[in-house]
Design brief:
about 230 residues, alpha/beta, D-Maltodextrin-Binding Protein, domain 2, 2 domains, 5-stranded mixed beta sheet, 3-stranded antiparallel beta sheet, 10 strands, disordered N terminus
Length: about 230
């Protein structure tokens, strides 16, 4: 993780405490429980949230947070909208789609740009992003990539409808790709695509990748999501 990324994530984590401050007593009172739902399986990019917890930053603001993992941004956004979590760290595009469908959420802070990475086996079946057409994609509907990929394909003139969707639980997507049960996956940088690299290395498979941000989908990435009570 770069120093810039680490600082930005630290600011985002501390921002949760500040946003909850209006609801929390400061001194001499019981800590206010708060649930923070992250966007995926715990990885390196989530470290600042736990550092803030370990160093007592939340407690100093009167908070007693529970930090939860997730199966994807869509699940996190749903949790915020339903009230089962207080704040979420999730993909902004996914939150916008959910908002348009009636989920009562709002984006209260923005962090970085979409860090999605398309990965495939480096064996000649896929040579460029144009070759994604007609190939199989291991993906779960709960992930932000579910919503990002159609837009990415449209930008790059790839026939999205020709892509064969293989609904696969997020934790086993890298294994599905390296064992040829799927042709490609879309992971997030700063922890999750490294998991794919590790899975590939175990079986001697080399991977190729492209970053969505560098190939047309240069949009806002993760944000701090809260429930819209209006």
């Amino acid at each position: 993780m770069s120093l810039t990324t680490g600082r930005a994530l630290s600011i985002c984590a501390i921002g949760v405490a500040l946003l909850l401050l209006s609801k929390a007593p400061l001194q001499g009172a019981e800590l206010t429980p708060a649930t923070i739902r992250l966007d995926f399986i715990i990885g390196g990019k989530h470290a600042p949230w736990y550092v803030a917890l370990e160093k007592g930053f939340y407690a100093k603001r009167g908070l007693n947070p529970t930090i939860q993992s997730s199966t994807g941004s869509a699940d996190t956004v749903r949790a915020i909208g339903s009230g089962s979590a207080d704040f979420g760290f999730a993909d902004i595009g996914t939150a916008i789609v959910a908002k348009s469908r009636g989920t009562p959420v709002e984006v209260v802070a923005q962090f970085g740009y979409v860090p999605a990475t398309i990965l495939w086996r480096d064996e000649g079946v896929i040579k460029t992003i144009k070759d994604l057409a007609g190939k199989s994609w291991a993906i779960s509907p709960g992930q932000a990539q579910w919503f990002l990929m159609p837009a990415y394909c449209r930008i790059n003139k790839i026939d999205f409808k020709s892509i064969k969707i293989q609904e696969t639980a997020a934790p086993i997507q890298p294994a599905a790709m390296v064992t040829k049960k799927a042709d490609f996956i879309v992971m997030y940088r700063a922890s999750n695509d490294e998991i794919a690299e590790q899975a590939a290395a175990k079986v001697g498979v080399k991977l190729s990748r492209v970053f969505m941000k560098d190939t047309g989908l240069d949009i806002y990435g993760t944000g701090l999501i809260a429930k819209d009570d209006d």
